[in-house]
Each structure stands twice: as structure tokens, then as C-alpha cells.
Amino acid sequence: MLRDALGKAFRFLGYTVQYGCIAHCAFEYLGGIVVCSGPSMEPTIQNSDIVFSENLSRHFYCIRKGDIVIVKSPNDPKSNICKRVIGLEGDKVCTSNPSDFLKIHSYVPKGHVWLEGDNLRNSTDSRCYGPVPYGLIRGRICLKLWPLNDFGFLRASPNGHRFLDD
């Protein structure tokens, strides 16, 4: 009887570890569902929109300019932020605010990306904290799930003019 109980307990523990590992790999490498908060990505992503974030792109270094990514916040490592990739390593980016009279440009250093929110007037992004290390990228948002009337792939940046090809 004790042997039966121990056998069942160890089998249960084995299945728990097995399914836990599968779930970890799925969320780490495949992706997951994310609830976005804050106004920085409006009008593309509204507060409380639900999106799907895939994680394979970051592992295969397939992040491109214009992609919207989930990133560990450089200011608060316990939270994630949602921003658009404006520049990759070596790209020339405009580092000043849109309202500034003089435009300042610089280059994104190796191993970093330049991130900005679509709502330039209400976004804390690389213009505040500088280039972000590529290793902080958690995933790439590829699909909006909620609200249903806005279901589908995300639209292009309303700030496409800030992408420089120099």
C-alpha cells in the first residue's frame, strides 16, 4: 500500500515536472498573450489591448525596423514595455523630440536597438534612456487579439518618417 502511494506520488511529480518544462519552453521560445497598458503606442495599440507576442524572432535575430517588441524596461527590470523598433545597430536615428527645432542624430551602437512609442508626445522611450541592448527584447508582437473589431496584424507606424535609411 505504501509502495502504491509512493509510486503514484512519484508519477504525479514526474508528470508535473514534464508538463512544467513543456510550458516553460512554449512561453520562452514560442510566445504568449500580452495585455498592453499605457498610452505610448496609441493609436496602434490602445490601453488594455490584448496581443500575441512571438519569441522566435528574437532568438534568431530577425527583429527588423518597424517591428513592435516587448522589452524588459531599462528603468525597471521587473516590468515590460511595448515599443516600436526605429533603428538597429549601425543605423542613424533622430534622437531629438519631434517638436525640437534642431534635429540631433546619432548611430545605434553594436548589440542595441532604438525604440520609440507611436505616441511620440506621451512615450518614455530611447529618446529618454538611450539605445536598448538587444538582449532585453522578450518578443515581437505580431497579432492583435482584442478588441475583436480590431483583430489582425498590426498597422504600420504613424511615424514612418522618423525611420532614416542613411
Automatic annotation (TrEMBL):
> CDD domains from the entry?
S26_SPase_I
| Main localization of the protein described in the UniProt heading | mitochondrion
A cellular component term, taken from the record's GO annotations: mitochondrial inner membrane peptidase complex
Which BP terms in the Gene Ontology apply to this protein? protein processing involved in protein targeting to mitochondrion; signal peptide processing
From which residue to which does the signal peptide run?
A: none
Positions of the Peptidase S26 domain:
16-97, 106-146
Q: Which NCBIfam families match?
A: sigpep_I_bact
User: What is the name of this protein?
Assistant: Mitochondrial inner membrane protease subunit
Natural source organism: Onychorhynchus coronatus
